[in-house]
Amino acid sequence: MKVIEYFTSENKEHWKEQIALADWSAAKFLLKLLNNTQKFDELLGGDGKLFFLLDGENIVSFVTLTRQDCIRDENMFPWLGFLYTYPAYRGNRYSEKLLKYAEEQAISDNHPIVYLATDHIGLYEKYGYTYLETRKDYLDEDTRIYYKKL
């Protein structure tokens, strides 16, 4: 298995077709953003990255590393988001592997801390994340904010 970055990869249509197969509404939203990179940059900040963990030509997991997320706070960045593992690959800690890769990228970009926003309780704690607080996201919904010092 290997990790690639969407925006610097070839065959973007192939990757978008695979994202479209994900049974998760946030993946559908991500696909809309990928089809309109201006909107992607507007919502998630410029220079965002989308990482895929691949099994051959199949996406196992994906995650974003961006300047913004659904929480608008200029003092909190970067954000990890859209973390997803396809059902056939679940139970093998592939999400953890991809999170670690994204964290390493954040470190190489001189970011000593990363944030994520989620509704999940108990998932990210096992990866070393600490609950910070609950805030309203840009859709005015409660979202839990976690952080991790790298």
From TrEMBL:
Coiled coil: none annotated. GO terms for molecular function: acyltransferase activity, transferring groups other than amino-acyl groups. It holds the Pfam family Acetyltransf_9. Gene3D superfamilies: 3.40.630.30. InterPro entries: Acyl_CoA_acyltransferase, GNAT_dom. Residues 2-150 form the N-acetyltransferase domain. This is GNAT family N-acetyltransferase.
